[in-house]
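Hi support team,

I'm opening this ticket because the web form for multi-chain structure prediction keeps timing out on my end. I have pasted the exact lines I submitted so you can reproduce it. The total is 754 residues across two entries, so I didn't expect it to be a heavy job. Is there a limit I'm missing, or should I split the entries? Thanks in advance, R.K.
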Amino acid sequence: MRTFLALLRAGLKSNFGLSVLRHRLLRQKKDVWMVPLVALAGVSVAPILYYYFQLLKFVYDLLAPIGQQAALLSFGLMAGQLLILVFGLFYVISAFYFSKDLDVLIPLPVRPFQVMLSKFAVILANEYLTISLIVLPVLVSFGALGGKGPGYWIEAALVYLLLPVIPLALVSALVLVLMRFVNLGRRKDALIIVGSLLLIVLAMAFQFWINRSTRLEPDSEALVRFFSSPDGLLQRVGSSFPPSVWAAKALARGLSAAGLGQLLLYAGVSLLLLVGMAAGAEALFYRGLVGLAETSRRRRGLTRSEISRRISSGRRPVRTLFLREWRLMNRTPIFLLNGTLTVILIPAMILVMARAGSTDSDLTSLFRMLSSGNALLSVLVSAGFMTVCGSLNGTASSALSREGSQFWISKIIPVSPRHQAAAKFLHSYLVAFLGIVAASAVLLGQLGIRPAVVVPALGLALAATFILTAAGLAIDLARPLLDWINPQKAIKQNLNVVFALLIDLGFLALLGFSCRFLGRLGLAADAILALLGLLLACLAALSWHLLGQFAEKRYPAIEV
Amino acid sequence: MAVGLLRADSGSISINGLDVRTDALKAKSLTTYVPDYPAVYERLTGLEYLNFIGDVYGVPKAERLERIDTWLEIFELGPAVGNPIQSYSHGMKQKIVLIAAILPAPQVMILDEPMVGLDPRASHSLKEMMRRHCEAGGTLFFSTHIMEVAERLCDRIAIIHKGRLVACGTMEELRRIDKEQQSLEHIFLELTET
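Hello R.K., no limit was hit. The queue was backed up. Here is the completed structure from your submission:
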């Protein structure tokens, strides 16, 4: 146990960078400016949380009169667990098999299951943070609105602590078996990309199936039958992932025998899976690691003439650096999935969701409604959708962090920081552009929005994304995360990416409020759009100028 | 500090009369650097990395081709240069970083423990290159813990102990510090005795 705790402590410190943070904050006094920034980021989440709580209260009040309020729990818990199930694969594969600390851990006199469980616990800690914004408000709302006693809150804490265990254990078991019995060592990059895409496709198929299966039968007898049980809707919502139903029932029924029985079932299965995974780790973990250090290489070397042909004849530095960004991003699976592919996946998911719900799905109807009604609103919503698709990825806000320990090269080359930042900007903007193009295609092709709406929206989105790309890059310039051992940390677990996302959402909300204000002043739609376009163009020019200046200031100050 | 990795708290550094802080780009274009650990872009092939360095230092194609060809042969890296760097051993990575440092034909080379990870043949070729570079009028600034290498190769030697410069000069000048000590190793031990 002592060994496990030592491993866990080291893992948690390394994962959250606690020792480094303490050193930088208390000894070097370097990141002190971060404290108010983190506080500001926390405050900026408050309005989103407020609206989420309002929505939950609305749904609760809607369901309570028909006795179906427990469905809220099942929705929240299932959302959290499915999120972990789908995205946990990234964490599990990279933490178990591709993190660089394995070179240090494997030679230690500790059992494989101890190493694996310590890594599992670190992922668990990350997941508590990931799902907190989705699940905790549900648990709090249900408890507060239902006037629950202390028993509920204790049970809720237990349910929350166990929530990631079952999905993570399932993903871990799958990965353990896959890595042991399929010789993927030399094709590990392909494994991460194909596996992740497969899970996303499965999630989409699942969404499709849920949309179909949750439609209620129209006959009144079935409806009466459905609502006669207080668990009717709860069961229906959570039916695709039974552990969510067990947990929801345990909380809904409280400390009664039935409630405790469900809690016991939920906790028992979690524990059983954990023990099973530890046993599996002892047998399979290290065997799956064998051969992972190997990478594919050509059997035959390049001939002299081939080398001669491939030697470039002198590109301009910005082009060279752009090419480096493009290659490194797209050849590193974690970066590819969280950057370039994300911008296409969001529109693709919207497309599937729209199609899954047939022609009259909520999403399609919403866009059609917007399209047929207020022209200004249609353009703004379309532009917002394009901007979200282009900007909500970590490409710009991890542009320096992704270089990690190789950042020394950028420090010594004779290329000005302004040009280096320009190359990174162009790369990030190209990725965003792909997202905007994909979003435009969905708007035009699937949602039937008129070109007269899409074209001005495209102009606004390109300008807004320009500003947000510069902002993302500036955040990473201010605080690059270079000392990572697992590429996940550079992009997926990088606070800069979170800051940038909050800024993106805040910026869009601000633009929305500004337009609403201008509308109330009685300005015509065309005038508002023209003003907005002008404002964005000016801000884009200003952000480009400021980015260059900031890069000149920051590059020499970043120490490796 | 000389190559821009760290900022100086005080004082200044000049390379060929160029202040590395105020004339950073010009100073960098005269200098190349090899770190103690060859952390390079693992997802690029060796040739892509060399092309990258050639591009940012503005090395013309003919010179680039000639130098790459020569050094790939000397370091026996030709068969692997088309493979991703992540498939290289530590020694191969060290060699690709060294070729990248030689490629721009810089006036000043700063090498941190350049022999680590090299096989004897590669190490010998590197030492020859270092000597030739200095004979051609270039400057080579390198750190090592192997006293024999420093004694045999260097025109001037500096000894640093616990972050402080305790001696600096030619081998002859260092010998004058303690006439009984003839080898650099003994001089080093004498000077750093605590």
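A quick check on our side: The mean pLDDT of chain B is 91. Let us know if the file doesn't open in your viewer.
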